[in-house]
Sequence to fold (295 residues):
Amino acid sequence: PPPRYQRASPATAGAPLGAAAPGGRGTRTERLGWALTGRRAAPAVLAGGLVVVAASATVATTATYDYALADMLPAGDPTTAGNRAIDRDLAGIIPIEVSLRGSPGTFDDPDVVARARRLDAFLADQLGTRPVGIPALVDDLAAAGFPEATADPAAALDLVAATRPDALDRLVSADRGHARLGGFAPDHGGRWVVALRDRVEAEGARLFAGTAVDVRVTGEAPVAYDGMNKLTGELVVSAIVALAFIVLAIGVAFRSLGLALVATLPNVVPVVGGMGLYALTSDTLDPLPGLGFCI
Fold:
């Protein structure tokens, strides 16, 4: 062998090439062969690892972050079965509430109620069922033999206030300045709920332009779903940033760009490869695997 491979450790100095090394680690000839093979294969191993990282990263970029209550329990769980039945056969399990906030007396105005009726129709188209609110109340009164309710919503609200004040309290505040539309939707996931919120608020801003009414989608569903989706994305991003700092620290500590690149493989391949595998085998990435990637 070349002279650079003729040096031996004190434990093997003077031993013939065919003699076994202490500890049963093979003969000197075998160990030299392993060293030569490892040095020759290192570029190929590094290149292969980089190809795996690149391919996994390409697939991982297609992963969709989402979260749905219906997916949190096993498919055979009674709660899951009940939720899916409600989503399939009834309005759905996700409560959607739209707040329409104006000044006192706003919802005695027929023009404002007419605008609310158009928002009611838009929301019904989005949910698949009509929400509960002043527009539905006025229309029901008109169908029940009080056609004047449509032209004079203030009189309709006075009528309900005199007979069922508890029911009216769910639709509008006592000063008639704050109303709400409430309904339910199937559990399509957090991204769908957040997108619905954005669509409804944009439509509300358009319909109530020029008035003092502010339209907002409220309730736990949009807040919880938006928070969980952001948490999932932030977990994955934080894991990637941590890996970048680890590789940078290795490069600075050992003053070697090559060593930093080599250290990239065992740190990055499990995360990026795992994300790529998840993207190939699942529709969405929820907080549980996101937390696993961080760990």
Summary: The radius of gyration is 33 Å. Confidence is low (pLDDT under 50) at residues 3-13, 17-21.
